[in-house]
Amino acid sequence: MEYRMLSSNTTKVFTTQCVTVGDAKRNIACNEKLRSFRSVDIVCIDTGTIYADEVNLSSFRTSEPILVMIGNEDRKFPSYLETDEKDPICPDGDEPRFLMPCRHATTPENLFGRMKSSLGSGGSFPVRCTTHGCDMVWEISDIMKRADLTEDEKIFFTAKSSLVSMRNLNVETCPKCTAYCQINSGSPSVSCAQCSDYTFCIKCKDAWKDGHTCDIKDVAEMQKILDEANKKDIDYCNVEGVPDTRMCPSCKRLIQHDSMCKHMKCLCGAKFCFVCLTFCEDSNPSCTDFDTKCRPAPTQKC
Predict the structure, then answer these.
(1) Residue 169 has pLDDT above 70, yes or no
(2) Closest CA relative to residue 119, chosen from 163, 169, 183
(3) pLDDT tens for residues 80-100?
(4) Residue 165: Cβ-neighbour burial (10 angstroms; 0-12, 13-18, 19+)
(5) What is the pLDDT of residue 283?
(6) Cβ–Cβ contacts within 10 Å for residue 85, how many?
C-alpha cells in the first residue's frame, strides 16, 4: 500500500504491514523521522475527513495512495504578538501566548486545536474567542497565520473550511483560485487564505482596494438580466425550470446555456454545474454525474 503527503506528488510505500490507520500513522512517523505519530493524520480532502486510528485500511481503495497530513511538531509565532495575558482555555499554563485580533490570548497549539475541533463533525463553526463576554469570530485566514500550519495543514484546512462554510451558506468563491472563502459579517470584502490573502469585493469580485466602490449601474443591470432569465429544461439530465442565464460563481461573468449537458466551463477557467451551481472537481460536478438530475439553485443575486 502506498501513501503521499498532501503537499507532495511523491508516492511512498509503507515499510511494515499495516492493518489500521493507527498502524499506518506509526509507520509514517518512523519513515519521516517524526517525534510522534500524533502529528500524522490520514485524511480525505474531498470530504474533509480525518480518519480515526481504529479505522481498518481495508476500507481504502488500494489503487490510490493514502493521503497524509503531516502536522507541525513545534508551532511558533511572531515574537511581536507575544503577551502575558492568560489563555482562557488553560489559564494556569505557562506556554508562550500571543494576541488574536480581538486582543485576547491563546497558544499556537490551543488555536490549532480550536480550529480542528470547530471544523470537525459536530463542531461549532465559525471559530470564536472563548474569553467571557467577547465571542468575536476568529477568521480562518487569521488562524492560519498564527497557528503556524504546515503546507499539508494549509491545504487540508482550507478545503475543510470551504466544505463547512458551504454547509453554512456563508461563503463567496475566490475569483483567482475558485476556493470557497468565509464571509466576514457586515464586511463588503473577503480575504482568500488559499491565495496568500488576496482580498476581493463580494459584490463585483474585483480586487479590493482602499476606497473601493462597485459600479452600481452595472450591478443593477446584471441583476435585471438574472431576474428576467427564461426558464428552460435541460433534457440531458432531465431537469426542468432552470434559468437559461447564470452568473459564473467564480468571476460573475454572465453565461447562457445553449444545449447539451449541465457541465459548464467559464472563460476564467472555473468549471461548475449550470443547474445547482456547485464547482466541478476533476472534471466531475460535486453534485452528480453530467447526465444525472440535481436540484436547480435559485436565481442568483449580484
Answers:
(1) no
(2) 163
(3) 888 988 888 777 778 888 888
(4) buried
(5) 46
(6) 15
